[in-house]
Write a structure and sequence with these properties.
single chain; 3 domains; 456 residues; 48% helix; 19 helices
Length: 456
Amino acid sequence: MEHQAPTVLIVEDEEVARRNLAHILEKDGYKVVSADDGAKAIQLIKQREFDLVLTDLRMKKVDGIGVLKTCRDLQPFTEVIMITGYATVRSAVDAMHQGAYDYIAKPYKIDEVRRSAREAVLKRQLRMENRQLKECLQKAQEEQSIIGQSEAIVAVVRTIRQISDSNTNVLILGESGTGKELVAKTIHHLSPRASKRFVAFNCGSFTEELMAGELFGHERGAFTGATQKKTGLVETADGGTIFLDEIGDMPLTMQVKLLRVIQEGEFMRVGGTEPIPVDVRFVAATHRDLAKDMEEGLFRQDLYYRLNVMTIKLPPLAERPEDILLLARHFLVEKSQSMGKDIQEIDREAMDLLCEYSWPGNVRELENVIERAVALQNGPAIRANDLPDYIQNLLVETYRRPGASIPTLVEQERNYIQWVLAKCGGNQTKAAKIMGIDRVSLWRKLKRFNPDEEES
C-alpha cells in the first residue's frame, strides 16, 4: 500500500512567512495547503481533513485561537501548532489549554518547526491507529455478544456475516425480547459503515407528528415553538445505519415518507422546501405479521419489499433451550462484575427451574431475572429462592416450557465449557479467565470429560 503524504494547513497572514513555512514542510514531504487569514482557514477545515494545522496567533477577523477551536470541534484528531511573534506566557498557556499541540515563537528555527511538525503528525497517527484498534475490538465484542449454540442462533450469526458487507436493507422478525436490536447493531459494526453512526428509533413510541420531527428534523419556524432548526435521526445517521424497531406500528402517512427516503436517497425536514440527500442503510424489526397487515391495508406493500431485501428470523428463547444456561451464565458474569460481587455459580435447583420455565419475555426477561438474583444474593451462588416466585412455582403449567428436558449438571458444565472454548478459538488460558477459574482447573475438567485430552 502506497504511503500517503501528511496534509498540512498553514494559516499565516504574512506572505513571506507563509511561503517560508510551506517551503520547509514541502521539502520534508508534506502536502501543504495555505490560507492567508483565519476565516479562509475555517472554510478549508470544513471542506477537508488535515493531519496538521500551523497557524499564526495574531490575525485580523479570526485569530489563531478561533482556528484552533474550529479544528477541535470539526477535526478532533488533527493537531494544531501555534506560531506567533507575540510570545507571552499568557498566550502560550491559553493556546495549550484550548488543545494546541505546541507553541513556537518567532523568530523560529527551521529544525524547531520540522521537529514539532514531525512529532505532531506522529501523535495523530498513533491516535488514529488506537481508534481503529478500538473499533476492531468493538466489532469482535459485538459479534461475540450474540450468545448461543443452538442451530437457529448459529444460522442467524452465519447470515449476519454474509450480509454485513453489503448495503442491502434488512428486516428482523421476532418476538419482543429476542434481541432484534443487538442483531441490528452487530450488522452495523461488522459493516463498512461501522465508523459512522448507528441510530435506533422505536416506531411505536411516538405520535405521527412527533415521529416526523424525530426522524426528519424541522426547520426554524416550521410550527409553534420551533425556535431553531433541528437535525433529525435520518440526517444524523448519514453514512451509517438506522434501526427502525417495531416498524409495523408506523402510520401509513409516515410509511410514504420513509419509502421516499429509501427510493430517492433524500428527505425534507418538517417545514422545509429543499430535499436533502442522505446515504443510510435501513434495518427494520417487528414482532407483527406484516403479511397480514398488508392484506388488511395497515402496511404498504412497496415499503415491505424495500425493507425485506434480507430477512433474519429470531426464535423465541423457549425454542432454543440449549442456550438458556449459556445466556444465564453470561448474564451472571456480566451483572456480578457490574455490581462488584463474586458470584460464580448457579446451583442445581436454580438451573433446573431456569431450564423448565417458558420465558415468554425471551432473552430480555432472562437478563432481568439474573440481574435481580445477583442483586439479592451475597453468597457464592445463585439459588432457587433468588428467582422470582413465578419461576419457583412451576407447578403452574402456564409457566412450564412444553417438553422441558433438563440436562444433567455434568452436561450443562460440559456444554458451557465447550461454548466458551469455541468463542476463544480453543485458547484455554483465555477461556479459564472468562469462566473465573485457573487454567489447571479447566484442564482437569476437560480431562474428566475426555480422558484422552492432553494438556497443551
